[in-house]
């Protein structure tokens, strides 16, 4: 892929149907559940991306039989007796939060196991200690740290789950609680996890998916305590994975700024993924999304005004999509204050700081707070900077911080025909970083631009 990638603006209202890849969150949960359930499970509509390959590779290294049919988006996992085969392994979790947390809790199941884990430099800084402390408190694992205490790289000395109660601090990442809800069960003993105040959207996905693998419904009591009864997971045989709704956010934003109609198949009115609520954020600006026969249809009449007065939106429950919104803020007319995003400073990169830096570079007025970002759009300044860059023979260029969501979000902004001539004005550095969750993102985007040569 060209790097930096010049984005060719789209000059017509949309009128397309796009195929989105499967959800990262659901694929990586399903892989863990398939390994935990005795027998063979085929995942349909699975995502093939860096984060899911990390999980696949780990399961193979741990002795599971995994066969992948990428052309048909299917993965089959065989688990002889639901027990973890390998006593030893060296695993690399990249910068996949799901793999990092879910595998750590999963490995603790194998008494006598000794596992070396490491991740990308960015992953070595991401929060793990809430999970590691809970595993130690449960007597399920001990850790030998080879760098900073409470972080990768470490050796996990597994002792197995045998019930008990743990306080779980999942304030830094709800994946910490999801990891324990997936793997903390045992066939003999009940387990209690006390975890008040966790952000619930992805925990709800975990709870629903446990049920699909034979677990009884589970919910927290009023004090935030989850009581897990003894459990043996059972395979549903095959499991269908929804398209990635966080990835849908980019194309919904595109439909808003571009107008026309966009169709996204295989999504119904009530997807598992909480990021579906992003639709409500864009509805305020005039985007209409309807679920018709298991297909989302997004429309905005061309020329309809998307400008609004100042707006404050709490993204705490849908924080992966705040970047999508922030990146199109320069086109929204009214200012926006995006709140509830402090935890995203500890994700792929410091997303609040990175977004503030990139939007400031584009001439937007940005106020950064610990937990919030206010963006006052300056469309004329954006145009002036784009023209000035062009006069120098350059394009405005976005840093992506090895964060897929920067690449994809600003890819949408660059698709807007800012200078009215259909020629590129924005470029994205390291566009291939979108491979974390959506390797073909820029191909899908370029397919919406009939005049653009296909990227290969
Ligand atoms: O459980 C999951 O699959 C996820 C939970 C969220 O992370 P945090 O809970 O760390 O915010 C989300 O940002 C991430 O993309 C996927
Ligand atoms: C936060 C994200 O990823 P991870 O699963 O690595 O936490 C994300 O995809 O936006």
TrEMBL record:
Principal location: cytoplasm
GO molecular function, one term: 3-phosphoshikimate 1-carboxyvinyltransferase activity
Pfam family name, one: EPSP_synthase
Active site: 320
SUPFAM superfamilies: EPT/RTPC-like
InterPro entries for this protein: Enolpyruvate_Tfrase_dom, Enolpyruvate_Tfrase_sf, EPSP_synthase, EPSP_synthase_CS, RNA3'P_cycl/enolpyr_Trfase_a/b
Metal-binding among keywords: no
PANTHER family membership: AROM/DEHYDROQUINATE SYNTHASE, PENTAFUNCTIONAL AROM POLYPEPTIDE
Family per similarity comment: Belongs to the EPSP synthase family.
Protein name from the UniProt record: 3-phosphoshikimate 1-carboxyvinyltransferase
């Amino acid at each position: 892929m060209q790097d930096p990638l010049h984005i060719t603006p789209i000059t017509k209202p949309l009128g397309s149907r796009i195929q989105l890849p499967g959800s990262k969150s659901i694929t990586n949960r399903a892989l863990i559940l398939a390994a935990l359930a005795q027998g063979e499970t085929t995942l349909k509509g699975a995502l093939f991306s860096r984060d899911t390959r990390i999980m696949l590779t780990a399961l193979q290294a741990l002795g599971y039989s995994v066969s992948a049919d990428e052309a048909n988006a299917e993965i089959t996992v065989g688990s002889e007796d639901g027990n973890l085969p390998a006593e030893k392994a060296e695993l690399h979790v990249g910068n996949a939060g799901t793999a990092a947390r879910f595998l750590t809790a999963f490995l603790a199941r194998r008494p006598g196991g000794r596992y070396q884990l490491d991740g990308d430099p960015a992953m070595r800084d991401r929060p793990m200690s809430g999970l590691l402390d809970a595993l130690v408190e449960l007597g399920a694992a001990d850790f030998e740290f080879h760098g900073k205490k409470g972080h990768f790289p470490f050796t996990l000395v597994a002792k197995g789950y045998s019930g008990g109660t743990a306080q779980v601090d999942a304030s830094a990442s709800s994946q910490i609680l999801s990891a324990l809800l997936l793997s903390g069960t045992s066939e003999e003993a009940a387990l209690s996890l006390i975890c008040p105040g966790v952000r619930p959207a992805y925990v709800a996905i975990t709870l629903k998916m446990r049920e699909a693998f034979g677990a009884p419904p589970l919910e927290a009591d009023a004090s935030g305590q989850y009581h897990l009864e003894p459990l043996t997971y059972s395979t549903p045989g095959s499991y269908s994975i929804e398209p990635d709704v966080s990835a849908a956010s980019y194309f919904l934003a595109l439909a808003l700024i571009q107008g026309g109609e966009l169709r996204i198949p295989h999504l119904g009115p009530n997807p598992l993924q909480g990021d579906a609520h992003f639709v409500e954020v864009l509805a305020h600006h005039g985007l209409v999304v309807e679920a018709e026969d298991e297909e989302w249809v997004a429309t905005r009449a061309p020329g309809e005004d998307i400008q609004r007065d100042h707006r404050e939106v709490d993204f705490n429950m849908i924080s992966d999509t705040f970047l999508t919104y922030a990146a199109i803020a320069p086109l929204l007319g009214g200012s926006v204050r995006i709140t509830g995003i402090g935890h995203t400073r500890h994700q792929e990169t410091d997303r609040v700081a990175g977004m503030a830096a990139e939007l400031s570079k584009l001439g937007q007025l940005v106020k950064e707070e610990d937990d919030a970002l206010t963006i006052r759009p300056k469309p004329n300044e954006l145009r002036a900077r784009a023209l000035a860059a062009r006069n120098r023979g350059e394009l405005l260029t976005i840093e992506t911080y090895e964060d897929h969501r920067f690449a994809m979000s600003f890819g949408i902004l660059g698709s807007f025909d800012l200078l009215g001539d259909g020629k590129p004005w924005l470029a994205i550095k390291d566009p291939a970083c979108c491979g974390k969750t959506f390797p073909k993102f820029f191909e899908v985007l370029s397919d919406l631009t009939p005049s653009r040569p296909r990227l290969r």
